[in-house]
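Retro notes (design track)

What went well: tokenization of the new backbones is finally stable.
What didn't: we kept losing track of which sequence belonged to which structure.
Fix going forward: every design gets posted as structure first, then sequence, in one message. First example under the new rule, 127 residues:
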């Protein structure tokens, strides 16, 4: 089993920044692809960003492209989501997730493709 724990959420004003962290433990494997998802109140969980095991490929939802950056530190079993120029519509619970499928396959945007999930961290952006 793999355990994922997010941290770094909070309340921030529009235009501000936050960095979310995700700590992995258990039977982690560096070849897992990693993703960040979010769920706003009353909405479906949606893909935010993803990265391959080496970080050589990343993918971002159009709504966050140019503002968010996903990264990972395999030596520390950590991954991060740097969020800048935050907007009220970025408000939601943010989840990190791991996909243990073929590491050379494409980064997936559908949540059903991810095998492990954290409990989430709340991000609230005030206007």
């Amino acid at each position: 089993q793999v355990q994922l724990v997010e941290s770094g959420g909070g309340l921030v004003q529009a235009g501000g920044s936050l960095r979310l962290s995700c700590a992995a433990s258990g039977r982690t494997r560096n070849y897992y692809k990693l993703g960040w998802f979010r769920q706003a109140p009353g909405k479906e969980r949606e893909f935010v960003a993803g990265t391959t095991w080496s970080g050589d490929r990343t993918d971002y939802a159009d709504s966050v492209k140019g503002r968010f950056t996903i990264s990972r530190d395999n030596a520390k079993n950590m991954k991060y989501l740097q969020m800048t120029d935050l907007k009220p519509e970025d408000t939601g619970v943010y989840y990190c997730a791991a996909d243990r499928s073929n590491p050379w396959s494409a980064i997936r945007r559908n949540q059903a493709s991810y095998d492990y999930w954290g409990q989430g961290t709340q991000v609230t952006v005030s206007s």
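Added context from the reviewer: Residues 31 and 54 are 8 Å apart (CA to CA).
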